[in-house]
């Protein structure tokens, strides 16, 4: 009796500990007071050198968070005895920015060894990238720890594909606790960065919900066969500025990916897209809130996980 009551109380306490394990904006204030400024300086110089790097760093945080939570799992390298997420379909020959993360990590390891997690570096670098490219800022919550595992199969199943329909996109985000409206706001990330021909070929050759002049212009650099890795900007209007042009493009049937145009194709998200085109502040405000929410997906906190000393390898 006493034993089962104790078991019950302990189970209850550990459950509450799990659900109250909270990230905090001041997590590194005393353990590594210069962590955020170090990340910001490195991100600024990487993005000033190559603006696409801002897009690439933002996407790393997304692809990290959608696979077993924001735990740095994406950063682990494959080796003879370990298969990580880098060769998963959405990542292979596609995700980039690892050298920038390595550079940040090595500076932080000199400054405060073993303190700042790789998962937190991704969250801060995503925010700083958006800011450098003219987007909104937000307070990044911190204290995520790094995984000791990764999942190729979850990366393949849980990162949304550009072939998805609107309902598929809504389900994919809903599986991570994000609403349809947050999905539409987060998709505004495609106001920066590039995509490979293979990800939009079907949309430009076989679909009709695309501006024909736009489709024709894309075909010159994305042949019907071959050129799979040729790049085009996700936002044809202002590819290196974090603005609301992505949504204006959608209303003009100039979404690059099939999945982009799904957000404005006669369905339930049309009005949100239109709203974002007519206000200059709604999209950035919603985006910032949704980024904080995405960054909260299943973090490892407390004594779970570890702080990797090298983001590419479990300690
Ligand atoms: C809504 C579902 C989404 C789909 C289907 C999707 C799909 C894609 C695809 C296919 C690419 C091009 C990849 C390649 O060429 O290999 C891409 C690029 C990109 N995605 Fe998404 N994405 C989605 C949501 C997001 C979200 C939520 C974010 C960030 C919060 C994001 C950020 C980016 C960025 C910044 C790029 C450009 C990266 C670069 O230039 O390096 N995407 N996305
Ligand atoms: C934590 O550090 C940040 C950045 O240095 C500072 O703005 C903030 O006031 C600090 N907060 C606390 C509670 O110490
Ligand atoms: C600057 O960007 C170019 C690509 O545009 C890249 O090859 C180079 O490594 C970058 N240099 C630094 C210092 O990041
Ligand atoms: C990843 O891309 C490389 C080419 O860079 C290719 O050889 C390899 O088969 C791809 N891996 C997977 C799992 O698709
Ligand atoms: C377009 O559709 C045709 C006919 O269904 C198919 O043979 C072709 O592979 C498709 N092409 C692309 C790029 O999706
Ligand atoms: C392979 O990678 C895993 C995960 O990072 C790591 O634990 C292991 O030590 C690595 N093996 C070698 C030989 O580096």
From TrEMBL:
Binding positions (Ca(2+) 2): 191, 235, 243
Q: How is the cofactor bound?
A: Binds 2 calcium ions per subunit. Binds 1 heme b (iron(II)-protoporphyrin IX) group per subunit.
Which family does the similarity line name?
Belongs to the peroxidase family. Classical plant (class III) peroxidase subfamily. Belongs to the peroxidase family. Ascorbate peroxidase subfamily.
Name the InterPro entries for this protein: Haem_peroxidase (IPR002016), Haem_peroxidase_sf (IPR010255), Peroxidase_pln (IPR000823), Peroxidases_AS (IPR019794), Peroxidases_heam-ligand_BS (IPR019793), Secretory_peroxidase (IPR033905)
Record domain Plant heme peroxidase family profile: where:
22-315
Designated name of the protein = Peroxidase
Q: Where does heme b bind?
A: 190
Catalysed conversion reaction: 2 a phenolic donor + H2O2 = 2 a phenolic radical donor + 2 H2O
Ligand binding (Ca(2+) 1)? 64, 67, 69, 71, 73, 85
Tell me which cofactor or cofactors this protein depends on. Ca(2+); heme b
The UniProt entry, under Pfam families, shows: peroxidase
Query: Secretion signal: which residues?
Result: 1-21
**Subcellular location, principal:** secreted
Keywords for this entry?
A: Calcium, Disulfide bond, Glycoprotein, Heme, Hydrogen peroxide, Iron, Metal-binding, Oxidoreductase, Peroxidase, Secreted, Signal
Location of the protein in the cell = Secreted
The biological processes this protein is annotated with in GO are:
hydrogen peroxide catabolic process; response to oxidative stress
Which molecular-function annotation in GO is an example for this chain? lactoperoxidase activity
| Site positions per UniProt: Transition state stabilizer | 59
């Amino acid at each position: 009796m006493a034993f089962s009551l104790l078991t019950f109380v302990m189970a209850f306490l550990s459950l509450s500990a799990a659900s109250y394990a909270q990230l905090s904006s001041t997590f590194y204030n005393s353990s590594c007071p210069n962590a955020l400024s170090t990340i910001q300086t490195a991100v600024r110089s990487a993005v000033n050198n190559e603006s696409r790097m801002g897009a690439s760093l933002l996407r790393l945080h997304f692809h990290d968070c959608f696979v077993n939570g924001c735990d740095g799992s994406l950063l682990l390298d494959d080796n003879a005895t370990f298969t990580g997420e880098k060769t998963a379909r959405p990542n292979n020959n596609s995700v980039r920015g690892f050298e920038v993360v390595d550079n940040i990590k090595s500076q932080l390891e000199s400054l405060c060894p073993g303190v700042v997690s790789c998962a937190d570096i991704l969250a801060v670098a995503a925010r700083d990238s958006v800011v450098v490219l003219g987007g909104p800022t937000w307070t990044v919550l911190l204290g995520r720890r790094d995984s000791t595992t990764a999942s190729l199969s979850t990366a393949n199943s849980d990162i949304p594909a550009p072939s998805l329909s609107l309902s598929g996109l809504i389900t994919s985000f809903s599986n991570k606790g994000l609403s349809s409206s947050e999905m539409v706001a987060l998709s505004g990330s495609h106001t920066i960065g590039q995509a490979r021909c293979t990800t939009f070929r079907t949309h430009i050759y076989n679909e009709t919900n695309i501006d024909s002049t736009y489709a024709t212009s894309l075909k010159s650099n994305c042949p019907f066969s071959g050129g799979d890795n040729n790049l085009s900007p996700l936002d044809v209007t202002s590819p290196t500025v974090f603005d609301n042009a992505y949504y204006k493009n959608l209303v003009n049937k100039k979404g690059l990916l099939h999945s982009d145009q799904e957000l404005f194709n006669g369905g339930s998200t049309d009005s949100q897209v239109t709203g974002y085109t007519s206000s200059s502040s709604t999209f950035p405000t919603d985006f910032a809130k949704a980024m904080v929410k995405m960054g909260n997906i299943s973090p490892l906190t407390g004594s779970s996980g570890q702080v990797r000393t090298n983001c590419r390898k479990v300690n």
